[in-house]
Amino acid sequence: MNQTRRAGKLRGVNRNFLPLVFLCLAFCAGAARAAFINSQNYAPLADWAGANGFRVASLSRAEIVLTNKSSRLVFDTDSADAKINGVNIRLSFPISKGALISQLDLDTAVKPLVYLQKPLAKRITTICLDPGHGGKDPGNRVGWHSEKIYTLLLAFELRDQLKKLGFNVMLTRSKDTFVDLPERPAIANRAGADLFVSLHFNAALNEKDSVSGPETYCITPVGAASSNSQGEGADHGATIANRVEDKSLLLAHQMQRSLVQNLHVEDRDVRRARFAVLRDAAMPAILIEGGYMTNPTEGKKIYDANYRKQMAAAIVKGIVNYQRLTAPPLPPDLAATNRQAIKIPAAIPSGTNKIPAVKHPQ
Ligand SMILES: [Zn+2]
């Protein structure tokens, strides 16, 4: 309809009814845009952007890019792949046609990474490291290499580096012993640890030569299916870990960013899983798949002590960056030790936005 014809039509409407007509148009347009898809409430991304101080930087059939002063959000249409402040995030539900996003993803994947967590977490003093597998459980095996050996060696390296920064560090195992999965977060809970970091290395069943890079997991939101390969369904109730899921996501985001940037490896996403070691942890908890043993190049690096040292340094940076976002300022002496021991990037993209004054759409 061209402008002249539209104006002509409006001229035909009694002026007394105009406000009513506009109200009806606005209401009908809003109702038509929001949707209920796959049992989920979906909201227009453009509306969310407008209400939250974001600009639609580009919008095509394949991709929607939202930006503000400190954040850049990229969503692929018809896909659960998103990129939030430089890190790939696997959403719980795909972006649907018409640039709609599930309200669950807005609440559990976007907002926790764009807005600083409040109340702030307490300062991290004790970190529980969980070297995956052990004893009768070798984990992934490639040739004569067993995952359980390398997770323990990485944990030792990480423990040394974290201790130098003044953290208390505990391990769920410090020998080649079998520890039941539920016992691992229980150890961290009993000790009142502030963070739980489980360490693993991955193996691909197919395309072994091409799949590489780290993945960082945190707990699946209630009402969503997991994004690991075994992916449990969405009909799973809340776990202890869901109480602190926003902080776990923020930790996973900082960790994945640090691993990808510092190790110069492929970004295989922040993902969600109800792993036994994650779901019962009462503190922010993540599981790092540090890379693929089945990839010939990455496998060789994982078996190399120098590379594991670099990986441990990247994990330390992820923890320190998370701490800087969420915890109260460091006491001066510990801050000085931290600065000397580790070069921390000045700008941290995630979680740095202030919550806008405008009301969030419900
Ligand atoms: Zn494993």
Number of strands: 16
Spatial extent as radius of gyration: 23 Å
Instruction: Give the oligomeric state.
Output: single chain
Give the SSE string: HHEEHEEEEEEHEEEHEHEEHEHEHHH
Query: Which runs of at least 5 residues are low in confidence (pLDDT < 50)?
Result: 1-32, 344-349, 354-362
Instruction: Kindly report how far apart the N and C termini lie.
Output: 33 Å
| Distinct small molecules bound, one entry per kind | zinc ion
Strand order of the largest sheet: 12-9-13-16-14-15
**Share of helical residues:** 25-40%
Class by SSE composition: alpha/beta
Overall average residue pLDDT:
84
Compute the number of helices: 11
Shape descriptor reads: globular
Largest sheet: 6 strands, mixed
* Strand portion: 15-25%
Structure overview:
The protein is globular. The chain is built from 11 helices and 16 strands. The chain has a 6-stranded mixed beta sheet, sandwiched between helices. With about 350 residues, the chain is an alpha/beta fold. About 35% of the residues lie in helices and about 20% in strands. The protein starts with a helix and ends in a 21-residue tail after the last helix. The N terminus and C terminus are likely disordered. It binds zinc ion. The site of zinc ion has 5 residues, from loops.
